[in-house]
Amino acid sequence: MFKKTRNKSQPPEKNLVRGKNLPKELTPLFKGFGLNKEKQYFVENLSMLTSSGMTIVLALDSIRTGLRSRRMKKTLDELKDDVQSGFPLWQALEKTRIFRTYVISLIRIGEESGRLSENLKVISLQEERDRMFRSKLNSAMIYPVFILSLTPIVGISIAWFILPKLTIVFSQLNVELPVLTKLLISFGGFLGEKGIVVVPIFVLIFVTTLFFVFSFKKTKFVGQQILFHIPGIKNLILQVEIARFGYLLGTLLDAGLPIVNALESLHQATTFLGYKKMYIYLRDSIENGNSFQKSFASYAEIEKLIPYPIQQMIITGEQSGSLSETLLKIGKIFETKIETTTKNLSVILEPVLLVIVWFGVVGVALAVILPIYNLIGGFGG
């Protein structure tokens, strides 16, 4: 009997989907930051060229000519070298560490089943859909963020440049000033003296706070919790996450990926901590032999993340053997909901933002007008 040996030039088989089992050096350090358009171009053209019968090496050469980024060109050169050395495309792509786990999984399944070009089309559509979801969420946030950022800027500018001059005027008036005006004058005088130091420090603290609350990896869950408790934004986040859940999980299951691995990919695709925890729980629960029904019933916060009717649709789809079709239908339903919510969100938030701005304007106006009114009243007396 001969013992089967492995070619040393070939890497050992690895679990590409369960990210926690990946060797440390192959765990993605970043997900193609700054390369989104180039990655989309790569996937779309690779799908088109391979479906026409072109070999992967020739397709890579053709794609490289249309790239602008030096980094992506270098990545394609390394990719071509690995493929020519005998690596499967999925292993070569995994080494680049610029594609998410579910992309690698679909390419692997496509290569092994002879459906590479079809799976590349699925990847391209899914990436485009995911970008659309993020774009809808970001565009919905631009208006309130702009208003709430502009308000303190205008307020500080008035307090810094205008109030010190009003302080001089009011101090010469022989009239009792209202408390609101005294506070405003004190604040204006303080900014007049210390503004050159205080304002930059305030701006630095404000920007740093926003960064740690909404962007820093270890603390951004705080900002996510804040957003998830704002009525209109909460609904949009929930709809985006359920649409992603339906489309991505349905697509992966339809492509033949095991459900445990598909849930791991879903966990890596989302950015909201609450959904990440839920997907990890579902993954582990189903891996232990539980159904979606038992997994949903045993997760305490499931109602906040997945509405009960959607749970029932998933349970019914699992029991009837049509889970992937049901999930894709859920994704389509919530994609339509996202369109409606995005259009209505600005209408919902606009009156709230106007009230916030109104309070600031009225406060400053009263502080300026009241002493003038008292002065006129004194003249009348």
Order of helices and strands: HHHHHHHHHHHHHHHH
Overall helicity: over 70%
Number of strands: 0
CATH class of the largest domain, named Mainly Alpha
Count of alpha/pi helices: 16
Oligomer: single chain
Total separate domains: 2
Cα end-to-end separation:
117 Å
Mean pLDDT reading: 79
List low-pLDDT spans: 1-33
Strand content: under 5%
The CATH fourth-level homologous superfamily of the largest domain = Type II secretion system (T2SS), domain F
Question: Biggest sheet: strands, sense, closure?
Answer: none
Q: Helix/strand/pairing class, anyone?
A: mainly alpha
Given the C-alpha coordinates, what overall shape results?
elongated
**Rg (CA only):** 29 Å
CATH architecture of the largest domain: Up-down Bundle
> What is the fold-level CATH name, i.e. the topology of the largest domain?
Receptor-associated Protein
Describe this structure as you would to a colleague.
There is one protein chain. With 381 residues, the protein is an all-alpha fold. It has 16 helices and no strands. It is elongated, with a radius of gyration of 29 Å. Residues 1-33 have low confidence and may be disordered.
